[in-house]
Amino acid sequence: MIECPSCGRRQEPLLTCADCGSPLAAPLGCFAALGLPRKLAIDLGALERRYHELSRKIHPDRFASSAAPVRDASLRATATLTRSYRTLRDPVARGLYWLELNGEKLAENNKRVPPDLAELVFEVQEQLAEMHDAPADSDAARELAAQVVARRGQLQTAMDANVAELERNFVKCDQRPDEKMLTLQLKPILSSIAYLRTLIRDVDRAVENSKAA
Amino acid sequence: MSRIFGIDLGTTNSLIAAMEDGAPRVIAVGGSNRALLPSVVAIAPDGAITVGERAIEMEPHLTVERDGRVSAVGFASGEYGAVIRSVKRYMGLGGDEIAPEDRARYTFADLSGPVVRFQIGTRVFTPSQISAEILRALKDGAERALRAAGKEEKVERVVITVPAYFNDGQRQATKDAGRLAGLEVVRLVNEPTAASLAYGLNKRAAGNVAVFDFGGGTFDISILSIKEGIFEVLATNGDTHLGGDDIDRVIVDWLLAELPDARKLDRHVWNSARMAAENAKKRLTDVAETPVVVELPGHSIRKHLTRDALDQMAEPFLARTLKRCELAIADAKLTPAGIDAVVLVGGSTRMPLVRRRVAAMFHKEPLCLIDPDQIVALGAAVQASVLMGMQGDMLLLDVVPLSLGIETMGGVMERLIHRNTTIPTSVGEGFTTAVDNQTHVDIHVLQGERELAKDCRSLARFKLGPIQPQPAGVPRIEVTFLIDANGILNVNARDERTGREHSVDVKPSYGLTDDEIERMLEEAIDLGEQDLEERLLISYRNDAEQILGALRKQLGEFGALVDGSERARMDEVVERLEAARTGTDRELIAKLVEELNEVTTPFAKRIMDAAIKLALEKKSVEELS
User: What are phi and psi of A163, to 5 degrees?
Assistant: First the structure.
């Protein structure tokens, strides 16, 4: 139970008070914060509208002249709302959060190379290593950077394919919510995505550094 | 509740604005339509403070006298008082963080501490204190302008704008400045975001907007999505030490190239060259070439600057801004084609080169519908009215410009909140102990994008605890890092098992502690009183000097009009006053001045009579002749 700092009503944790509508500093999960059912497939347009609508109600800018406890509740409620929105907006973050809700998670250090991408991954890693060793601002470094940038496109395509598959699986999970197996099937896809993300980030950093040098 | 005002605390100029009849308007703090207050603060040897145009006159520079001689005027160095401009470049920085070119400009007290301090005479000032003087001048100027318009209104609550790319310490320093000026800072707003509010206020604008904000000392690029009154920042990037000042400096180097180094660094010479450079740069917005003249004692520097040459000098700085734009566009997950409008902000965007390059980068002509010097202040006034609940559905969702994280094993920075995350936001992180019976956990909070802690900016250190002695790994402490709507970090910690809130004593790595601010506020009040005391004492001493001097003169001329006993009485009071005059008891000085006045009144009357008699005699002689 939580007490509303505006009207004092005690109630179940919610984003806003059931009586007066003031923000509440309640610890809430991502779906609850946005007032959504626990479903994996989400219409992003509707999600954004909901986020904006709730922001208008609870944002600290709306309570700039309120008493300190109300301002504080507004700050915390908005932080919760923002975090929840960002988690649900991104299919990968949403999938990982879903695993967490179901008591699952990816291995701490996700070092397993996605089998179908092994060849591409090794090539990119080799190029990154060469870039690292190449003298800064040399022709060799620029040439390598150009090659890596070309490979980045392939990585992104692989990434997009994985995300599309993830979203197809989301629909399946929602259709048969009791089948734990379906949730477990999300894991290898999320694992591939996480791997690709790290690699793409490494590529971007390497290219950025080579430009900066 | 009093009205909230919007303040643009700029590197070069500062403005204050408010909503009038539904539209934001700047307030003429300088009288007669002058809204721009130069962000220049002069501190005289006696501590007297002057802000704005008059402070610029006190800046050390060379001036050509009527007879053609060139002489040095203004406060030359810290020993004799100082004139500080571009104080924003020093806000929130530690001594070791000042750029080399910013270091040569002033005398600093101690460059090893967590806060830069200007040494001026026997006093030291932090950048927040200097900025507080600018804020105070804006407050006083606005109150005066409002009074002249028949409105008695106090400026108490304000929104202050900051560069979007300001880090936590720079934001905190700005808030501190507000507090030191006696203002309630209701919100810090990012400058490009504020500009977007002014731009989008009446247009019911929608779409993706890029705000290119190139000012005197800082550069920001922000990409926003505007939709049904929600101004949502998608990404921001920038450089807090990149602006028109840097271009001026290159022009100065070119101007003074032939002078020996010692002359170049002379503050009178350098400042005169800087003024000439700034003026030439401004002229080249409208003309293709211009003469640049610096008059020195003995000779003058006469050169010619073309717009092409200026463009070449500015190019490296512009390239840096465009690089930042690329990064921001990528972070927003957009392409230049996906941006519907580009809004120009800041005086440096008046340069034709800047407009041309920005147009090429975004494939569209940038908009400059609102005065680029005023748009940020106007936007701050719009945000102020949002905060007063007077703008309906309008709402700003801004982001944190830099990632926030903690130092982990091996000196690696672990990111907890990524850059461009919408604020307010929070993240929880669990901590435990590494050895048995450990009673404290040290946490080092960092801000920045680099991989290693040593390459990021240290934000704060704090100790969690005391923790009950337990085997390693058993205690569970949940720490919440919360970034508020001002972009400033708040930390609190809770013991997971006991549910007890831990007090977190955050020691900022840079900047002032709360205690230091309190002390400065007290000192300011004490100093204010002390200053008043001093001023009164000085004025009484002056009175004493005046009456003593006058008496001495009169006794010399009309000594014959005083008899012995009267003279003795006078001498006795004079002697006591002479003694009191060098002391600090102003009441005593006042009393003796009064007494001396009384004793000498008959004498003064006799002198008067004698003078009249003399004048009459003279007249009659003239009449007779």
Answer: -65, -40
